Amino acid sequence: MSVVRTMGLGLVTTIVILCVVISGANGDAMVSGSVFCDRCKDGKLSLFDYPLIGIKVSISCPGRDGQLKVISEETTNWIGNYIMRFNGAPDMSGCRAQVYGDGQGCQAVAGPAQSLNLVFQMFDTEIYTVDHLISQPAQPMSNCPRSSSPSPILSPPPSNPAPVPQPPKLPPLPPVSFLEASACPYRYRMWMMPEYECYWRVLTPDLKVSFVFGPLAAQKYGNDITLRGSMMGRGDPYKTLLRESTTALLNSYNSLQFPYHPLDVVGRLNAALLGGSTRQVLMTALRFLRANSGNPGNVTCKFTTCK
Fold first, then answer.
1. What is the pTM of this model?
2. What letter would DSSP give residue 186?
């Protein structure tokens, strides 16, 4: 298993942008990227890092005087992504994205700016992506791997930093360890049993599919179906895909050893919907079904009753 499980983010970013294009955006420029908390302060993404939710990102472009001026701001969503749209498809090759403000749970300060990369241009539509924006806490996490050549990306904290607000108290964790291999399929309906409700990490049953999986999923499944409702789908390739995708997403949040990262699950579902092929939909659903059933490796479901 790759140490850096966040590499699927590039696929998610591309899929999300294409969804916007499909939904009817014409003559626009769009910018998309993601923000992560670099908990080890090593300047790169690792399995210890996580997306920053609700953090602000600005786009600055050169004005007539050559000085950079902020032209737009956006806040990252629940998977750390942001998307900005600009009318008229302006040339944004000299613009830069910058994260600023504190990241939720990261106690981070603004990281370095990143240039915009033009990845698509057609029908007066331009799509730009931004390399990962990384913020860092004042001190690295205590159990980070040792590195012979650390590469901090931010300036050292001030000698007398302002007091940092304490993060909110989290609910008790499920009995099974996040580091332990576990895969729980849909067919046992354990995800829907009250005694196992603590295994809904990050997500809740009443979250909308459109919010979790994005605009293309909303276009296909509607805006009203919840994750709870998506677990009931059967008898149709697209409903099966959504059911197994939701199950895979839950498994990915409960076991570090699950074959798919949460962002990878979201990206693969959108890729299947975007392909428009029933065969691709069924193949993606089958891959998730196999992973949810513990293959490869004959992994079992490690659920125990929540306390």
1. 0.49
2. G
